[in-house]
C-alpha cells in the first residue's frame, strides 16, 4: 500500500460528522413517525389473535410473549375451524361488507361520471345560466364542500322517510355521491385544464362531434386523473359513518355502523372487536399500499396550480 | 377559478327544424306537467282530500327524474350543438340542486317547527321557539366553542405536516415505504380508529398507551377524565388521521418548487434555516393557505370520532356541533330543533369562511 496522499482537512471532517448526525436525526424522526402511524394497525392485528390474559398482561409480540389464538376471528366466523360452518355473525358481517362495497363503488362511479362531465364542460365551454357564468358555476359546485353533513342530515331523514328511501342503498348512494362530487370536480377540472385544447380542435376538424372528441380523445388522456378521483372518493365513502348511522337501520347498514354498534356492547372482549375493526380497514389498507400513487396524485391535484 | 378565455371555440351551423324545436319544448313542458300533476295529486292525498292509494312520495320522485331526463334531452332538441354542450354540466347541476338546494329550503321550514318524528302529532309551526331554546342551550354554545378550539389545533397539525413533508422531500432512502406508512392513517375509517386508539390503546387499565404513560411516571393515566384532557385526546386522534392529508398536499407543493431557486439561495450563502424561512416558506404560502382552508372545512365536519369515543362526554365537554346534533336527535328525535342548530351552524360557517377567504386573499396576494 502506498502512502495516502490526499487527506480530509479537519474542517471537512467536522462537516462529515455534522452530515452524519443530521442523517441520524432525519431517519430517527422518520422512523418514529412511521411507528406512530403503523403501531395502531399492528396493535389491532395482534390483538385479534390474543386471549383475555394476553390482553391484560399487555403482551405485544406474537410467538414471543404469547401464542396467537384464533379467538377473535372465531367470533366473526372467519377462523379456519369455523369458515366452513354456518355462522350468523359472518353472514351479518358479509352483508354489511357488501353494503359498504356497493354504496362506495356505486357512489364513487356516479360522482366520477357526473363530476368529469361537469369539469370538462366548465374547462372548455363558456356557459351562462341566468346570472351565473363559468366561474360562478364552478364556485357553486365547489362551495358544496363547505356544507357540513349535519345540515342536510335531518331534512334528508324526513325526505327519505316520505320517499321510502330510508334504509335503502340507493338513498345512501345518492347522498355519498353528493358529498364526494365537489372533490371529484376539483380534481378533474385540474386534469382537463392540463390537456391542450388543440387536441380536441384537431379532432373536431377531422369530423368528430364534441362528445365524440370527449370520449375518444380526452377521456383516455384524463383516465389517470379519473382513477385518482375514484380512489379518493372510494376511501371517503367507505369510511363514511354519519349519514349511514342516521339513515340506515337494518337493511342497508354499512360496515362502520356495524363496528360502531359493537364498540359499546363488547366490554373487554377486545379480540373480537380487533378482528372486526381489522376486517373493516383491511380493504383500505390494501388499496393504500397498491394504489398509493393515485391517492397522492388525487390529493396533490388541488394543491398545486 | 376556471381561467376565463382559454375555451374551445366551436362554430357550428345548426339547421334545427321548427318541428324539432317544438318537439323539444313539448317534451320539457309535457314532463313538467306530468310532474306537477303527480305532485298535486299527492299533495291532495296528503291533505286528506282524496285517496289515490299512494303509499309514499315515490311517484313524484319518478316524475321528477322523468322531467330531469326530458329537460336534458330537450336541450339538445331545441338548441342543437349548443345544447349538447350544456349537457356536460346540466346533469351535475340538476343533481346538486335537487340534492342540496331543495333539502336546504325544506330544512328552513323544519327549522322553525316543533317536529318529533316519533310522536303522531306531526309537524307544528312554532315560530322562534327553537331560536329561543338555542339561545339558552349552554351545550350548543359549548359545542361551538369547542369547534373553535378544534380548529385552532390545525396550526399544530400544519406544523407537523410541514415538517413531515420536508423530511419526505429530502434525500432519503426507502421514500416509498415512508410515504405509504405516513399515508396509512388517512385510509382508516374514523370509526375503526376510534375503537383501535380511543377505546383500546387508550384504555386506562390494559391499553398500551396507558401502560407507556404509567412507565413514564403518570400515576393514573386517564385520557378522558378531565374536559381539557379529553378534548386534547380527541384533537390528537383527529390530527393523527388527517395529518397525512395535509402532508401530501404540502409535499406536492414542495415538489412543484423549482430546485434552482433553492440552489440559488444556497449559492448566495443562505443556511438551511434561513433558506427555508426566506425562500421555501414564502413560496409555499399559496399552497399552505389552500391546505389549511380545506383542512378547516374538513375539521368543521368532525363528528365520527367524538360520537364513538366519548359520545360528547365528560359532560358534553368534547362535543362538536355535529356530534351534539346527532345525539340531540338520537335522544329526543326532535327534528325541528336539531335542524335549526344545524342551520345556525351553517350560517356561522359561511360567514367565517368568507371572512377568512377575504383576509387570506388580501394577505397572500403578491405585492409587486
Automatic annotation (TrEMBL), chain A:
<dbReference type="GO" id="GO:0055085">
    <property type="term" value="P:transmembrane transport"/>
</dbReference>
<keyword id="KW-1133">Transmembrane helix</keyword>
<dbReference type="InterPro" id="IPR000515">
    <property type="entry name" value="MetI-like"/>
</dbReference>
<feature type="transmembrane region" description="Helical">
    <location>
        <begin position="170"/>
        <end position="188"/>
    </location>
</feature>
<comment type="similarity">
    <text>Belongs to the binding-protein-dependent transport system permease family. MalFG subfamily.</text>
</comment>
<dbReference type="InterPro" id="IPR035906">
    <property type="entry name" value="MetI-like_sf"/>
</dbReference>
<protein>
    <recommendedName>
        <fullName>Maltose/maltodextrin transport system permease protein MalG</fullName>
    </recommendedName>
</protein>
<comment type="function">
    <text>Part of the ABC transporter complex MalEFGK involved in maltose/maltodextrin import. Probably responsible for the translocation of the substrate across the membrane.</text>
</comment>
<feature type="transmembrane region" description="Helical">
    <location>
        <begin position="241"/>
        <end position="262"/>
    </location>
</feature>
<keyword id="KW-0762">Sugar transport</keyword>
<feature type="transmembrane region" description="Helical">
    <location>
        <begin position="139"/>
        <end position="158"/>
    </location>
</feature>
<keyword id="KW-0472">Membrane</keyword>
<feature type="transmembrane region" description="Helical">
    <location>
        <begin position="208"/>
        <end position="234"/>
    </location>
</feature>
<feature type="domain" description="ABC transmembrane type-1">
    <location>
        <begin position="97"/>
        <end position="291"/>
    </location>
</feature>
<feature type="transmembrane region" description="Helical">
    <location>
        <begin position="268"/>
        <end position="291"/>
    </location>
</feature>
<feature type="transmembrane region" description="Helical">
    <location>
        <begin position="24"/>
        <end position="43"/>
    </location>
</feature>
<keyword id="KW-0813">Transport</keyword>
<dbReference type="InterPro" id="IPR050901">
    <property type="entry name" value="BP-dep_ABC_trans_perm"/>
</dbReference>
<dbReference type="GO" id="GO:0005886">
    <property type="term" value="C:plasma membrane"/>
</dbReference>
<keyword id="KW-1003">Cell membrane</keyword>
<keyword id="KW-0812">Transmembrane</keyword>
<dbReference type="Pfam" id="PF00528">
    <property type="entry name" value="BPD_transp_1"/>
</dbReference>
From TrEMBL, chain B:
<feature type="transmembrane region" description="Helical">
    <location>
        <begin position="279"/>
        <end position="298"/>
    </location>
</feature>
<feature type="transmembrane region" description="Helical">
    <location>
        <begin position="180"/>
        <end position="198"/>
    </location>
</feature>
<feature type="transmembrane region" description="Helical">
    <location>
        <begin position="86"/>
        <end position="112"/>
    </location>
</feature>
<dbReference type="Pfam" id="PF00528">
    <property type="entry name" value="BPD_transp_1"/>
</dbReference>
<keyword id="KW-0472">Membrane</keyword>
<comment type="similarity">
    <text>Belongs to the binding-protein-dependent transport system permease family.</text>
</comment>
<dbReference type="GO" id="GO:0005886">
    <property type="term" value="C:plasma membrane"/>
</dbReference>
<feature type="transmembrane region" description="Helical">
    <location>
        <begin position="147"/>
        <end position="168"/>
    </location>
</feature>
<feature type="domain" description="ABC transmembrane type-1">
    <location>
        <begin position="143"/>
        <end position="358"/>
    </location>
</feature>
<feature type="transmembrane region" description="Helical">
    <location>
        <begin position="335"/>
        <end position="357"/>
    </location>
</feature>
<dbReference type="InterPro" id="IPR051393">
    <property type="entry name" value="ABC_transporter_permease"/>
</dbReference>
<feature type="transmembrane region" description="Helical">
    <location>
        <begin position="61"/>
        <end position="79"/>
    </location>
</feature>
<keyword id="KW-1133">Transmembrane helix</keyword>
<keyword id="KW-1003">Cell membrane</keyword>
<feature type="transmembrane region" description="Helical">
    <location>
        <begin position="239"/>
        <end position="258"/>
    </location>
</feature>
<protein>
    <submittedName>
        <fullName>Sugar ABC transporter permease</fullName>
    </submittedName>
</protein>
<dbReference type="InterPro" id="IPR000515">
    <property type="entry name" value="MetI-like"/>
</dbReference>
<keyword id="KW-0813">Transport</keyword>
<dbReference type="GO" id="GO:0055085">
    <property type="term" value="P:transmembrane transport"/>
</dbReference>
<feature type="transmembrane region" description="Helical">
    <location>
        <begin position="21"/>
        <end position="41"/>
    </location>
</feature>
<dbReference type="InterPro" id="IPR035906">
    <property type="entry name" value="MetI-like_sf"/>
</dbReference>
<keyword id="KW-0812">Transmembrane</keyword>
Amino acid at each position: 500500500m502506498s502512502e495516502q496522499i490526499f487527506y480530509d482537512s479537519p474542517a471537512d471532517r467536522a462537516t462529515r460528522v455534522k452530515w452524519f448526525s443530521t442523517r441520524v436525526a432525519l431517519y430517527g424522526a422518520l422512523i418514529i413517525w412511521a411507528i406512530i402511524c403503523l403501531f395502531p394497525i399492528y396493535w389491532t392485528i395482534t390483538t385479534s389473535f390474543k386471549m383475555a390474559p394476553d390482553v391484560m398482561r399487555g403482551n405485544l409480540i406474537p410467538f414471543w410473549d404469547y401464542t396467537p389464538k384464533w379467538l377473535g376471528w372465531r367470533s366473526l366466523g372467519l377462523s379456519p375451524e369455523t369458515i366452513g360452518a354456518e355462522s350468523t355473525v359472518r353472514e351479518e358481517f358479509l352483508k354489511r361488507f357488501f353494503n359498504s362495497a356497493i354504496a362506495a363503488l356505486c357512489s364513487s362511479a356516479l360522482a366520477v361520471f357526473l363530476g368529469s362531465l361537469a369539469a370538462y364542460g366548465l374547462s372548455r365551454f363558456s356557459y351562462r345560466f341566468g346570472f351565473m357564468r363559468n366561474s360562478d358555476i364552478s364556485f357553486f359546485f365547489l362551495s358544496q364542500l363547505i356544507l357540513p353533513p349535519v345540515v342536510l342530515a335531518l331534512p334528508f331523514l324526513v325526505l327519505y322517510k316520505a320517499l321510502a328511501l330510508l334504509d335503502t342503498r340507493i338513498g345512501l348512494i345518492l347522498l355519498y355521491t353528493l358529498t364526494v362530487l365537489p372533490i371529484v370536480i376539483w380534481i378533474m377540472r385540474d386534469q382537463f385544464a392540463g390537456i391542450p385544447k388543440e387536441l380536441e380542435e384537431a379532432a373536431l376538424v377531422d369530423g368528430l362531434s364534441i362528445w365524440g372528441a370527449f370520449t375518444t380523445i380526452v377521456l383516455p388522456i384524463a383516465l389517470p386523473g379519473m382513477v385518482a378521483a375514484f380512489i379518493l372518493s372510494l376511501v371517503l365513502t367507505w369510511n363514511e359513518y354519519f349519514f349511514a348511522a342516521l339513515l340506515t337501520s337494518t337493511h342497508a347498514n354499512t360496515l362502520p355502523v356495524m363496528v360502531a354498534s359493537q364498540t359499546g356492547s363488547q366490554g373487554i372482549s377486545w379480540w373480537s372487536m380487533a378482528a372486526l375493526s381489522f376486517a373493516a380497514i383491511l380493504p383500505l389498507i390494501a388499496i393504500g399500499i397498491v394504489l398509493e400513487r393515485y391517492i397522492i396524485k388525487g390529493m396533490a391535484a388541488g394543491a398545486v396550480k | 377559478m376556471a381561467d376565463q378565455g382559454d375555451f374551445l371555440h366551436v362554430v357550428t351551423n345548426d339547421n334545427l327544424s321548427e318541428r324539432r324545436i317544438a318537439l323539444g319544448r313539448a317534451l320539457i313542458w309535457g314532463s313538467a306537467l306530468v310532474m306537477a300533476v303527480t305532485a298535486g295529486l299527492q299533495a291532495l292525498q296528503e291533505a286528506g282530500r282524496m285517496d289515490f292509494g299512494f303509499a309514499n312520495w315515490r311517484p313524484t320522485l319518478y316524475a321528477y327524474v322523468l322531467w330531469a331526463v326530458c329537460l336534458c334531452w330537450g336541450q339538445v332538441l331545441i338548441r342543437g350543438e349548443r345544447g349538447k354542450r350544456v349537457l356536460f354540466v346540466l346533469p351535475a347541476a340538476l343533481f346538486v340542486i335537487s340534492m342540496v338546494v331543495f333539502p336546504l329550503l325544506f330544512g328552513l321550514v323544519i327549522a322553525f317547527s316543533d317536529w318529533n318524528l316519533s310522536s303522531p302529532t306531526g309537524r307544528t309551526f312554532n315560530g322562534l321557539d327553537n331560536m329561543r331554546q338555542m339561545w339558552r342551550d349552554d351545550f350548543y354554545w359549548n359545542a361551538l366553542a369547542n369547534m373553535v378550539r378544534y380548529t385552532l389545533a390545525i396550526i399544530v397539525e400544519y406544523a407537523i405536516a410541514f415538517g413531515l413533508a420536508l423530511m419526505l422531500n429530502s434525500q432519503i432512502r426507502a421514500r416509498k415505504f415512508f410515504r405509504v406508512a405516513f399515508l396509512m392513517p388517512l385510509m382508516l375509517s374514523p370509526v375503526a380508529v376510534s375503537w383501535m386508539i380511543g377505546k383500546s390503546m387508550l384504555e386506562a387499565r390494559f391499553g398500551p398507551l396507558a401502560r407507556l404513560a404509567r412507565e413514564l411516571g403518570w400515576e393514573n393515566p386517564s385520557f378522558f377524565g378531565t374536559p381539557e384532557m379529553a378534548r386534547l385526546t380527541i384533537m390528537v386522534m383527529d390530527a393523527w388521521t388527517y395529518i397525512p392529508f395535509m402532508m401530501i398536499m404540502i409535499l406536492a407543493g414542495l415538489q412543484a418548487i423549482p430546485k434552482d431557486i433553492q440552489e440559488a439561495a444556497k449559492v448566495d450563502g443562505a443556511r438551511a434555516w434561513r433558506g427555508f424561512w426566506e425562500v421555501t416558506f414564502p413560496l409555499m404560502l399559496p399552497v399552505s393557505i389552500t391546505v389549511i382552508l380545506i383542512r378547516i372545512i374538513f375539521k368543521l365536519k368532525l363528528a365520527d370520532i367524538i360520537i364513538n369515543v366519548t359520545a360528547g362526554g365528560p359532560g358534553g365537554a368534547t362535543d362538536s356541533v355535529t356530534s351534539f346534533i346527532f345525539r340531540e336527535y338520537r335522544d329526543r328525535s326532535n327534528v325541528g330543533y336539531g335542524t335549526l342548530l344545524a342551520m345556525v351552524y351553517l350560517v356561522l360557517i359561511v360567514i367565517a369562511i368568507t371572512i377568512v377567504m377575504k383576509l387570506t386573499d388580501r394577505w397572500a396576494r403578491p405585492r409587486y
